[in-house]
Fold this protein.
Amino acid sequence: ALWLNEQGFHRARAAKGVDLVGKISLYTSDAFAKRNNNCTAAEMRERVVRWLDLYAEAGVTVERALVMTAFGCNYEGEIPPERPVEELLWAHRVCAERGIDLKKLYFADTMGWANPQAVRRLVGMLREKLPAVEVGLHLHDTRGLGTANVLAALEMGVSLFDSSVAGLGGCPFAGHGDARGAGNICTEDMVFLCHEMGIETGIDLDRLIEAARLAESLAAHSRGGSCMLDRSGNTARLSCGYTRSQVSQKASIAVLILWPATSRGMGAPGRRMPFTVTAAFSQPMNRLGM
């Protein structure tokens, strides 16, 4: 389940069959924080302390921290790399003071500013400070560099990624010129990338594409990734890209796939990467900015 405030958290707790995973969200940009969470980045830190109390009271384990606008912001421009790293170091330090072993720290490219060089820089900086933690990425494909950023991260041994089936999602508060934002990196394309590189995922790509088409039909939009099914049912590569369109405000399904791997590094062909699938049927993803 996803939530942005206490009310959403309590609703998630009351819902049946919903998995609750404790997470911390932080910001590098006051301008975006005010639009997305109605607070400043400093005020969000204060809220995180309250969140830790709520999680403890509810018996929810805190597993990850994520800093939004880690690579840049459409409102504030370039974000110094030290800023997102410091936010995650703060989260790790606060959790440690409470006896919480925070093992997963994520950089979120909320507005699609990331590039492979920036990905390598941030991942390297954080690992220098906290070599034992797992670094994750929450990427958006707003400017078409999503796959390149994933590849750069894989080459550095990153094994945690947020992606969405059919590339659904996006944030209406991200300040894009056309008032639209691309969704998370497309799961089908990322699975295809891994398979082409000899990294096993345990996922049937054809079946995944079928699921993506179902998601598209529920969202009443045709987005799709670069991987499509030909009429014979076999996965076929296309020589061109695809058109991104905004997910309907009425869309109510978002399927995320998190990619935990067994070890760092690319590994040899045939290496297996177990996947965990999490489905959220609540607010439209384009109403939950990350």
